[in-house]
Structures are given as structure tokens and as C-alpha cells.
Design a protein that fits this description.
By secondary structure, the protein is α+β, with helices and mostly antiparallel strands. The chain folds into 2 domains: 72-184, PurM-like, N-terminal domain (60s Ribosomal Protein L30, Chain: A, 2-Layer Sandwich); 192-357, Alpha-Beta Complex (Phosphoribosyl-aminoimidazole Synthetase, Chain A, domain 2), CATH 3.90.650. The protein has helices at residues 3-6, 16-28, 48-62, 103-117, 137-154, 209-217, 235-244, 258-270, 285-294, 316-324; strands at 74-77, 83-91, 97-98, 101-102, 121-132, 157-166, 174-184, 200-203, 250-253, 273-277, 307-311, 333-339, 346-349, 355-357. Strands 9-11-8-12-10-13-14 form a 7-stranded mixed β-sheet. The protein has a 5-stranded mixed β-sheet with strand order 1-2-7-5-6, covered by helices on one side. Strands 3-4 form a two-stranded antiparallel ribbon. It is globular, with a radius of gyration of 22 Å. The termini are far apart.
């Protein structure tokens, strides 16, 4: 056997475009599968494992058209024709105090933000506590005050709740669950079905602040840095953006799994591609430095006061200007665009002229950050 017979001809060697196409096709075939026999920390990270757990356990058990939308809240239409958004969330962040916030204001802001990015004006909140025996009453009073202050700042009312106590050692201090209801204005329509190629992707401010603030607050990384959580209500920013860009297609707050996971959820839902320009991402230099030292990509780090929006190209400039004029939106930026192909894929343009695929978050590099 000669070496010539082992060497493929030029026609047998795929060109770079074909190799890229084959890699993309393989990537498209990847769908989150539930292969674990027990729950792991990764199932709470908001990435592939979370998606697999939700899809194969909860959606399978509770399946209905409202749930299958898998949004930040369920859009409900009343017999009168009015529309509400109903959302719920739980908070297990550790530590419960961190630079820039506490589990109390985080719980209120998290539900307010889920309602706001769903297109609703947040109105009412319920709060449920699971308290560990021995938790200091004075500390609980302070957390309740934090929640009241956050509700006042967001313009919502805490109207109902529940309290349970478990034996010492059965919980990590306390856990909080909030649920909220908001009213959708009659002329407002947000839907991933409205997203079109050429639309622009906007982020309302710097990313990765919350996750890094909580990680450093744990004190086990031997890193000191002046980083505060971005926990804050975004409903004011959302209303400003919608006023400036009335053709806004879709919004989502980038919490667990960060910007990268949110963009993947968008691409897979709409069947289009998303391209992010790495050089346009607003990241605080200190946050970026900490991410680099820990080997964590900031696009996967949770935010608790930022959202991602898809707007029509002709309205993108006005949308960013409106956000930058308000507290919390000074670093708003257009960071990318929606493209027709490759469908279902998120890609990132690097400052060096290359492009890399951005997958959904795998594993849990930042456990219990919300």
C-alpha cells in the first residue's frame, strides 16, 4: 500500500467553510438531556442541567400551554380581557448579606424584575419564609425592613405571605420565596415570535457584578476587591426603554447562567442566530479582573439588576440613550444583533477578529448566588 492511497485527494478534504458547517450541525444536535440520578448543585445554576431538569421533570409533569412558554412569568388573560403576569422565585443566596444588598432586597427585586421584563407593571408581591430554629429575631426584622424598602423603591406592595420554621441544622439560616403579579398595558406586546434578523441586542448595564460580589463576600478566595452587587429593580428602566423603542420585541433579566445562557435561550426559542461583539460588552474592569483570576467567563455570571432586550435596529440608538439617562442604565449598550444563520447558535466576535461559539452554561461555577 502506497502513501498516495493514504492521502486524501483535494476533493476529499473539506474546506474551512464545510468544517465550520459540520461543527455547527453537531452543535445544533446538542439538547439538554437529564442523565443524573440525583439532584446536583448544577441543576440550580440556570444552565444546561437546569434546563434538562425543568424540561424532563417539571414541564413533563405539569405540561400546559401557559407553562410551556417558559418565560420569566406566565401571561394570563382574564375574562374581562385584561392581562396579568404571574411570577415566582426562591432565594437561597449565601451569605445573606453581601456588598450592595441582602437576601431581603434581592428577593423583592428578583420578582419585580421578572414581571417587568415580561412586559407587566409590577403591582403585588407575596413573601414566604422558611426559617431555621435559632435565627436571630433582630436580624429577621432588619431583613423585613430591607424588603419593605425595596418594595417601596419598586412601587409594589407586599400583600400576603407565609412562615415556616424547621429545626436547627435543617436550613442555612433562612430561605425566601416571593411571587408577584403585574398588569400588562393594553397596547403592549412582547414575544420571541416578534424577533427578526437584523434586530439589535441591548444590555441595560455592566454584567457580572452580582455574582462576583457574592463570591468575594464568602471570604474563601483570598481576593479583595471593591465590587458591589447590582441588585435593583429594573421596572423604571424597562418603561423608559419601551417608551423610547415601542417596537421592542423581547426582554429577559440575565440572572442565573448570565448573559450567555439568556442569549442561548433566545436563539433556541426563535430559531435564529445571535452574534455578540465581545468588545462592546460593558464590564467593570475590577469585575473582569476577578473573573480572569478565577477562570470564569463573565458572560455566565449572574446579574440581579440588568436585563437584555431585543429591539428594532432603527430604535436601538434611542433605546440606549433613554437607558443611559436613568440611574442604573449609565452603561447600557448595544452588544450584538440577531442573524438568520446559523440558526439556534450564539456566536461571539472577539477583539482579535475571530469568532467563537457561546454555549449554555455547563456546571455550576458560582453556586447559591441568588
Amino acid at each position: 500500500m502506497t502513501s498516495e492511497r493514504l492521502t486524501p485527494s483535494a476533493s476529499q478534504v473539506p474546506d474551512p467553510e464545510d468544517r465550520t458547517r459540520l461543527r455547527v450541525e453537531e452543535f445544533r444536535k446538542r439538547r439538554p438531556r437529564l442523565i443524573d440520578e440525583v439532584v446536583t448543585m448544577a441543576h440550580g445554576a440556570g444552565g444546561k442541567s437546569s434546563a434538562a431538569l425543568v424540561d424532563h421533570v417539571f414541564v413533563e409533569a405539569f405540561r400546559n400551554p401557559l407553562l410551556e412558554q417558559l418565560g420569566d412569568g406566565a401571561l394570563l388573560r382574564l375574562p374581562s380581557g385584561e392581562r396579568l403576569v404571574f411570577s415566582t422565585d426562591s432565594f437561597v443566596v449565601q451569605p445573606i448579606d453581601f456588598p450592595g444588598g441582602t437576601i431581603g432586597d434581592l428577593a423583592i427585586n428578583g420578582t419585580v424584575n421578572d414581571l417587568a421584563v415580561s412586559g407587566a407593571v409590577p403591582q403585588w408581591i407575596s413573601v414566604a419564609f422558611v426559617l431555621e430554629e435559632g435565627f436571630p429575631i433582630d436580624r429577621l426584622r432588619q431583613l423585613a425592613a430591607d424588603m419593605r424598602a425595596a418594595a417601596d423603591a419598586a412601587g409594589v406592595q407586599i400583600v400576603t405571605g407565609d412562615t415556616k420554621v424547621v429545626p436547627h441544622g435543617s436550613a442555612d439560616g433562612l430561605y425566601i420565596t416571593t411571587a408577584g403579579v403585574g398588569v400588562v398595558p393594553a397596547d403592549r406586546e412582547l414575544s420571541p415570535a416578534a424577533v427578526r434578523p437584523g434586530d439589535r441586542l441591548i444590555v441595560s448595564g455592566t454584567i457580572a457584578d452580582h455574582g462576583m460580589a457574592v463570591m468575594l463576600a464568602r471570604g474563601n478566595l483570598a481576593i479583595e476587591a471593591d465590587i458591589e452587587s447590582d441588585t435593583a429593580p429594573v421596572n423604571g428602566l424597562v418603561e423608559a426603554l419601551l417608551a423610547a423603542a415601542p417596537s421592542t420585541r423581547w426582554m429577559r433579566d440575565a440572572t442565573r447562567g448570565g448573559l450567555g445562557t439568556v442569549c442561548n435561550e433566545l436563539a433556541q426559542t426563535v430559531g435564529l442566530g445571535v452574534v455578540i461583539d465581545e468588545g462592546l460588552l460593558p464590564i467593570d474592569p475590577t469585575v473582569l479582573g476577578c473573573c480572569d483570576m478565577l477562570g470564569i467567563d463573565p458572560i455566565y455570571v449572574a446579574n440581579e439588576g440588568k436585563f437584555v432586550a431585543v429591539v428594532a435596529a432603527e430604535e436601538a440608538e434611542a433605546a440606549v440613550a433613554a437607558l443611559r439617562g436613568l440611574p442604573g442604565g449609565a452603561q447600557a449598550a448595544v452588544i450584538g444583533e440577531v442573524i438568520a444563520e446559523p440558526a439556534g447558535i450564539v456566536a461571539m466576535r472577539t477583539p482579535f477578529g475571530g469568532t467563537r461559539i457561546v454555549d449554555m452554561l455547563v456546571g455550576d461555577p458560582l453556586p447559591r448566588i441568588c
